[in-house]
Specification:
Number of helices: 8
CATH superfamily of the largest domain: P-loop containing nucleotide triphosphate hydrolases
Helix content: 25-40%
Number of domains: 2
Structural class: alpha/beta
Strand order of the largest sheet: 6-7-8-3-9-10
CATH topology of the largest domain: Rossmann fold
Order of helices and strands: EEEHEEEHHHEHEHEEHH
Largest sheet: 6 strands, mixed
Radius of gyration: 18 Å
Shape: globular
CATH class of the largest domain: Alpha Beta
């Protein structure tokens, strides 16, 4: 279980408050207006933002003081953090080893992952030579290689068309369910949450609402939810 306990975090004049838990193997969409604190929540769980008070726990162990690399977490951001001078194969391989010195079994694992995300024809291409969807696949392949139990996504489908967005989301869902992972995904598209068909975490003005079923969220009379949905 992921447990965020009495958390207070933020930058400068913005402060985020959170107190919730997420069961292992859950698929959770994080929704809320722009500037409400969704990315701050992701960054804090991942270890990129400081915690003022409170704790973050995974499977009963406190990870609050761990560096991002020590946490059982992979993060995929909007810009995908690709290296422009590296080709597809190396951009993905770096997910295993920063020095790119892979053993034969590790190299095979890289090629297997490349095939899984459909990039086998592009392994020598650099990010600038690829489409937005293909760059998303590179970043996804990298986190697939790391295969940590918690996967955090921050608006990774931004700029993708509806059909490609659905395809990418389906690929991610298949992967996290095959590997028994837990997914927290920041999105502005309610259709993403409906596709996940599990839990919603709603963030409003720095306040994190505890996870709820998608059906409860859509049927709620809470003015914050209805205003966000435009109903």
């Amino acid at each position: 279980m992921l447990r965020v306990r009495n958390l207070r975090a933020g930058y400068n004049d913005f402060e985020l408050w959170a107190n919730f838990s997420v069961q292992e193997r859950s698929l959770v969409a994080i929704l809320g207006p722009s500037g409400s604190g969704k990315t701050t929540l992701i960054n804090t769980i991942a270890g990129f933002a400081p915690v003022n008070t409170g704790d973050i726990e995974w499977k009963g162990g406190n990870i609050t003081g761990l560096s991002p690399g020590e946490r059982p977490i992979s993060v995929l951001f909007q810009d995908h953090n690709l290296f422009p001078h590296l080709n597809v194969e190396k951009n993905i391989s770096i997910g295993l080893k920063a020095n790119l010195k892979l053993k034969p079994n590790e190299q095979e694992k890289v090629f297997e992952t490349i095939r899984k995300v459909g990039l086998e024809k592009y392994i020598t291409k650099k990010p600038s030579e690829l489409s937005g969807g293909q760059r998303t696949r590179i970043a996804l392949a990298r986190v697939m290689l790391r295969c940590k139990p918690l996967l955090l996504l921050d608006e990774v489908f931004l700029g993708l068309g509806p059909a490609l967005r659905l395809e990418m989301l389906g690929l991610i869902m298949d992967f996290v369910q095959e590997e028994n992972m837990t997914l927290l995904m920041v999105t502005h598209d309610i259709n993403d949450a409906i596709k996940l068909n599990q839990k919603i975490i709603f963030v409003h003005d720095g306040q994190v609402v505890s996870p709820m079923d998608i059906a409860k969220f859509l049927g709620s009379s809470d003015f914050r939810f209805r205003e966000y949905l435009g109903i």
